[in-house]
Amino acid sequence: MGDATDKIAEQWAAVRPDLDATPVHVVLRIFRSSRLLDQRVKEHFAAHGLESWEFDVLATLRRAGNNGTLRMSDLAGAAMLSPAALTNRVDRLVAKGLVVRTTHPDNRRIVQTSLTEPGRQLVDTLIAGHFSHERELVDGLTAAEQRQLASLLRKLLESLGDGSDH
């Protein structure tokens, strides 16, 4: 018994037996897992009237402490977004009344984004369900397997240049 990745690797082995398809087993499974996880997370937030990116920005602000306030540059880095993409997303969240944009009191060149009370309440309401949903998504693995996979994925991400400063 195998999955689609096994089939693809077998096909490559048949037409190009000179190539080592071992990396295909890892990379393709990560790609396929990413797409499936992304789809399920999007479905989860859509059921609550949110885009997954909206929750990501709100959760990033909530995790930051500082009364749910971050400089736009810090928020862009923490949310792994370009400044232009973040500006567009923050504009949409401002329109929904979930965040506000202000200038820093000591330096008007610094733009800050803060959760509004409705934004904070929304994150706090959804986070437990989000964690529960993520638990269901990885429930096919034991707790020890989840820890092992998390460790291996951290090692892979670090080798790809995704350090703790991202």
UniProtKB/TrEMBL annotation:
The keyword Cell inner membrane does not apply. It comes from the Bacteria. Residues 23-158 form the HTH marR-type domain. Pfam families: MarR (PF01047). The keyword Transcription applies. One of its GO terms (molecular function) is DNA-binding transcription factor activity. Keywords: DNA-binding, Transcription, Transcription regulation. InterPro entries: HTH_MarR-typ, MarR/SlyA-like, Tscrpt_reg_MarR-type_CS, WH-like_DNA-bd_sf, WH_DNA-bd_sf. One of its GO terms (biological process) is response to stress. SUPFAM superfamilies: Winged helix' DNA-binding domain. This is MarR family transcriptional regulator. The lineage of its organism: Bacteria, Bacillati, Actinomycetota, Actinomycetes, Mycobacteriales.
